[in-house]
Amino acid sequence: MRISKAAIFLGWFAAMLLLAGCAQSPHYLQVEPSVGENLSRVGNGQSVTLNVVDGRESDVLGTRSGAAMSTAVISVEAYDLMPKLQNQSEMALRQMGFNPTSEPATDRPSLTLTLTDLNYQKAEGKPLLDKAVLLARFQAEATNDRMTYTGTYTAKRQQDYALKPDREANTAMVNDLLSRALQRAFNDPQIGNLLAR
Predict the structure, then answer these.
(1) 47, 66, 105, 171: which one has the fewest Cβ atoms less than 10 Å from its Cβ?
(2) Where is the signal peptide (predicted)?
């Protein structure tokens, strides 16, 4: 059975359209950041009021194509991310010897952890390669006995690629980024020392 050139061309064209559609589809990432298990124990069971805040302007990190109006957006939804960050922050405080609570009290130490930035940008890469630049940033404010300490914790990653990363690869990169920034925040000795005063 002979297949005409037109049928072959139409099949090839349809396949290219399908691939293009897949390449431009949005990625909604479900990440699982981890604070790790090697935090120094400085507390002695003190209660600490913990607030974890989403300070980002948008759930959208950026686009895979780098174009502002692209449909290939990468998003991490606040309703999915923030409870996970809350859980990891509570685990971190427990490892450090504190008892986290959401109940505020004027005479209780407090820690507010704000996710201020989570970005994914396409940058100029090497010949035949593109580059993604990812950034995560937290701001922590610890308060105790009329004293306040504020720190900023950033994790950055640059990734070269020939083919655009798929959802799984993007999820892994954002997971790594959030985990490293979170670990830097809770490994800051100034936070633990102030909360333990």
Answers:
(1) 105
(2) 1-20
